[in-house]
Amino acid sequence: MMLGQRADITSVEAINKDLGRDKPLPIQFLNYLNDLSPLSFHNISDPSNYWYLDQNKYGKTLRIITLGGKSLVLKEPYLRRSYQSKRNVSNILIEGFINTFVLAMVAMAFAIILGIGIGIICAVKKNTWIDHISLVFSVLGMSLPSFFAAILNAWIFGYIFAQFTGLNMTGSLYTVDDLGRGEYLDLKNLVLPAFTLGIRPLAIIVELTRNSLLDVLSQDYIRTAKSKGLSNTKIILKHALKNALNPVVTAISGWMASLLAGAVFVEYIFDWKGIGVVIVNALDKYDFPVIMGAVLFISIILIIINILVDILYGLLDPRVRVQ
């Protein structure tokens, strides 16, 4: 794939040796782990295989100790190079993650603010027409596939009503200027993908906020607060809502991790240059280092978010704190 249709056996063998693919699979795996580890062993006398050690952004690689012709060094984790572009995988993922991060934050902010607000209204107005309509839209939002919602929103708001909305069917955070003046920030391209991504978490947050708040409002301490003459607004915002947010936080954390990992379908349909598009392109071109790096990157995001959620549980509800 790297050499094209006219590749000869000698050139293929040279590429395999350069990439370390001429070694047994267990050795390839150990070498990959060695490259990933910040503390790793390298043969500094043969820099051809470890050229990246001299390109560390912190300056020179810190050599800790030398044993038997190999050195223990402190360096950045190395995710290898892309087969197609020859660029560092870490640089490719960081570029895509910035766009995905912006998209995910806007989508979740939209879902959280609107979802919790609507959920509170539904709980307060239980069994009214407002509650029933909100529940119908919540069910529709949860059952609507993201790829279908993306196509539908792009077609309706980016094509049929484009003259009124001023939105495009596709586009990323930065757009290349037609007059040759380089790239510029184009925030209107954020509207449709963020709205599409926010539909499903919005529906789930509305449902969870409503049901959890109704459960908390039936507790004894809420009745005590009412008997003391506190207003409904103060009871809900100061006493009930905080204790009702644990299941909502769980849902938010799951969706946040999912969105930060790359909303593949939505990003691909709207041509949003994020992690999702990077993964699709890598799969399409069999760019294995990028795929492996993306999987590791996504795993780290999931672990970090789960740790932060556990900490947040303790802040919201003192009963779950570990003594």
Question: What does this protein structure show overall?
Answer:
This protein has 323 residues and is mainly alpha-helical. It folds into two domains: 9-74, no CATH class; 89-320, MetI-like fold. Helix content is 63%, strand content 7%. The chain contains 13 helices and five strands. It has helices at 9-19, 25-36, 89-124, 129-143, 146-160, 162-165, 191-217, 220-227, 232-244, 246-260, 264-270, 275-284, 288-316, and strands at 39-42, 62-67, 70-74, 174-176, 183-185. A three-stranded antiparallel sheet has the order 1-3-2. Strand 2 (62-67) and strand 3 (70-74) form a beta hairpin. Helix 3 (89-124) runs parallel beside helix 13 (288-316) and helix 7 crosses helix 9. The protein is globular. The mean pLDDT is 81.
Instruction: Report the top-level CATH class of the largest domain.
Output: Mainly Alpha
Order of helices and strands: HHEEEHHHHEEHHHHHHH
Category from helices, strands and their pairing: mainly alpha
Q: CA-to-CA gap between the ends?
A: 57 Å
CATH level-3 fold name of the largest domain: MetI-like fold
Please name the CATH architecture of the largest domain: Orthogonal Bundle
Q: Overall 3D geometry? A: globular
Tell me the fraction of residues in β-strands, as a range. 5-15%
Tell me the number of structural domains: 2
Number of helices: 13
The largest sheet has its strands arranged as 1-3-2
Q: Tell me how many strands there are.
A: 5
CATH superfamily of the largest domain: MetI-like
